[in-house]
Specification:
40% of the residues lie in helices and 39% in strands. It is of the alpha+beta class. It has one domain. Strands 1, 2, 3, 4 and 5 form a five-stranded antiparallel beta sheet that branches. Helix 1 crosses helix 2. The N and C termini lie far apart (58 Å).
Length: 109
């Protein structure tokens, strides 16, 4: 029983390393070929490191933007993949730009 449990733990650990460290592994996560990976933005908050990594992804339905939201702290690592269309990516960029230039005197939504 112990050998079977250990075997599954090793397989799961290998799968996590494969999907996190290789472009081929990210192909499984994003359901398409990762064409390019851009440098990530990083934030340290209360002992946790958060990263947002952007990928250019080619899927069967066309070019998309892959976002990998990664959070890690001692002994733990989480990754949430998001795949958005070019229209959604442009909307996200506009919203982020609006948040950067927001003035409190303006109308609030």
């Amino acid at each position: 029983m112990f050998t079977i449990t250990l075997f599954f733990i090793v397989i799961i650990f290998a799968w996590i390393l494969f999907t996190q460290l290789t472009k081929r592994g990210r192909k499984f996560i994003f359901a398409g070929k990762v064409l390019k990976t851009y440098p990530s933005a990083e934030s340290n908050l209360k002992g946790q490191v958060y990263k947002i990594q952007v990928h250019a992804v080619q899927t069967e339905t066309g070019r998309k933007v892959g976002l990998a939201l990664q959070g890690s702290r001692f002994g733990e690592h989480d990754m949430i993949p998001l795949l958005v269309s070019s229209n959604e990516a442009e909307k996200l960029i506009k919203d982020m730009q609006a948040a950067l230039t927001f003035q409190e005197e303006q109308d609030s939504e």
